[in-house]
């Protein structure tokens, strides 16, 4: 159980998500590395976000990219049990996977969907995004062929310069789209490009542009139900962007979009661990790994960690740098291979042995390596670190 703001929170994991040690043992029996996902932390984060936006605002859990590497189905089930009422993904195949897992909540497909897939979207009660007039006409044509309407949210480009109707032309184009038979327009939205910055002036400019479009199209969209602009950063930092619907992605997983947002009571849900495959003694001047780029400076204890770039463990231009073993930091030496990498464990006490547990992301003893630590080392963002952890590494749900 997890205590959340004076309440005892039992992590109600819906049917179909096993948390047993038996499952954990089975998952790691055949693979020497694993990723632990703390669903109680997902539950905590979801509930915290819902409390933040209030009952009048719909909380949409973004589970694209396999739930940001955490497992889309398991995260979706948990989020829906703790305050989320919508799900969002990038592409249709991700939405279909959720439907195949018997998740019946409304699902928004935020990215591009080919018009030929409209009938499939209708059959599975999915909501699609519209970003241009040609696609709107094609969607309407396909929906009419199917003899039903397709649910859509129209996206307005207010300054991201990605998908969406240009805000200067959006009102006129929406007037046309609203008259196309076969489309049920239930939402209007935009996306912030810089809501995680310290200076929010551009975000407020985007918000102003979106509000002007919203005001102009209200007469054409009398049945408009959902208005949304806020991603995780907007949800946390820009209250006026909440409207009646927010899309929370990275925050759901206990990670902040940016340090500029300050401390939040979010709990990271992911840890990555492995067992040592081998420990060997190498004499001085022995090259290690491909290219002989690292040579032992003395007699060294070298441990083989069964994790490589085929698992999402970055090789270049920077790698993780170090991992935790026996609560101490063990440096990675030589080049990271596809399935293994090597550690210099000479100074690790007690002496390393085959089977010892190593932490790549997470805490061991008094030491920790966070997703943000890894991102800083790699010169990237926490989003990329978790979403590039490949699916061959089993996820263990706790």
Explain this structure:
The protein is an alpha/beta fold and 398 residues long. Helix content is 29%, strand content 25%. The strands form four sheets. Strands 3, 13, 14, 17, 18, 19, 20, 21, 22 and 23 form a ten-stranded mixed β-sheet that branches. Strand 19 and strand 20 form a beta hairpin. Helix 2 packs across helix 4 and helix 8 packs parallel to helix 9. 43% of the residues are buried. The N terminus is likely disordered.
Short descriptors:
single chain; 398 residues; alpha/beta; ten-stranded mixed sheet; nine-stranded parallel sheet; 12 helices; elongated; disordered N terminus
Tell me briefly what this model is:
The protein is α/β, with parallel strands linked by helices and 398 residues long.
Provide the gyration radius in Å: 24 Å
The total beta strand count reads 23
Distance between the terminal alpha carbons, to the nearest Å?
Answer: 11 Å
Q: What is the count of DSSP helices, taking H or I runs of 4+ residues?
A: 12
Described by strand count, sense and barrel closure, the largest sheet is: 10 strands, mixed
Structural class: alpha/beta
Measured by DSSP, the beta-strand proportion falls in 25-35%
Bulk shape: elongated
Secondary-structure map:
Elements: E1 2-4, E2 7-9, H1 21-29, E3 33-37, H2 39-53, E4 58-62, H3 64-68, H4 72-81, E5 86-89, H5 92-100, E6 107-109, H6 118-123, E7 127-130, H7 133-146, E8 150-157, E9 165-166, H8 167-177, E10 183-189, H9 201-217, E11 226-228, H10 232-237, E12 245-248, E13 270-275, E14 278-282, E15 287-288, E16 294-295, E17 300-305, E18 322-325, E19 328-333, E20 341-344, E21 357-364, E22 367-369, H11 371-378, H12 382-387, E23 395-397
Parallel strand pairs: 3-23, 4-5, 4-12, 5-6, 6-7, 7-8, 8-9, 8-10, 10-11
Antiparallel strand pairs: 1-2, 3-13, 13-21, 14-17, 15-16, 17-20, 18-19, 18-21, 19-20, 21-22
Helix pairs in contact: 2-4, 8-9
């Amino acid at each position: 159980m997890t205590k959340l703001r004076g309440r005892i929170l039992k992590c109600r994991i819906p049917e179909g998500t096993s948390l047993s040690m038996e499952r954990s043992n089975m998952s790691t029996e055949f693979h020497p590395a694993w990723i632990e996902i703390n669903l109680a932390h997902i539950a905590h984060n979801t509930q915290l976000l819902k409390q933040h936006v209030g009952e009048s605002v719909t909380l949409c859990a973004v589970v694209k990219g396999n739930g940001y590497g955490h497992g889309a189905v398991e995260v979706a089930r948990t989020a829906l049990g703790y305050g989320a009422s919508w799900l969002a993904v990038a592409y249709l195949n991700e939405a279909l996977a959720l439907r195949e897992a018997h998740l019946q909540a409304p699902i928004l497909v935020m990215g591009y969907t080919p018009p030929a897939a409209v009938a499939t979207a209708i059959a599975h009660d999915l909501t699609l995004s519209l970003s241009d007039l040609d696609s709107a006409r094609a969607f309407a044509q396909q929906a009419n062929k199917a003899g039903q309407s397709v649910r859509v949210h129209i996206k307005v480009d207010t300054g991201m310069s990605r998908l969406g109707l240009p805000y200067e032309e959006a009102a006129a184009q929406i007037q046309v789209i609203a008259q196309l038979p076969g489309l049920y327009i239930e939402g209007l939205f935009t996306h912030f490009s810089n809501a995680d910055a310290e200076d929010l002036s551009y975000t407020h400019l985007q918000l102003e542009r979106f509000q002007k479009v919203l005001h102009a199209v209200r007469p054409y969209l009398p049945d408009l139900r959902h208005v949304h602009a806020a991603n995780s950063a907007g949800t946390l930092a820009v209250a006026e962007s909440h409207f009646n619907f927010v899309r929370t992605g990275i925050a759901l997983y206990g990670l902040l979009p940016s340090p500029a947002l300050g401390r939040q009571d979010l709990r990271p849900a992911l840890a990555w661990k492995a067992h040592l495959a081998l420990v060997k003694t190498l004499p001085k001047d022995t090259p290690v790994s491909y290219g002989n780029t690292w040579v032992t400076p003395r007699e060294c204890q070298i441990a083989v960690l069964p994790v490589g770039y085929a698992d999402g463990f970055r090789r270049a231009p920077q790698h993780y740098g170090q991992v935790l073993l026996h609560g101490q930091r063990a440096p990675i030496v030589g080049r990271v291979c596809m399935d293994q990498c090597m550690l210099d464990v000479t100074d690790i006490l007690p002496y390393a042995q085959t089977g010892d547990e190593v932490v790549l992301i997470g805490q061991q003893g008094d030491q920790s390596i966070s997703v943000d630590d890894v991102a800083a080392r790699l010169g990237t963002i926490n989003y990329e670190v978790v979403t590039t952890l490949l699916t061959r590494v089993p996820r263990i749900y706790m």
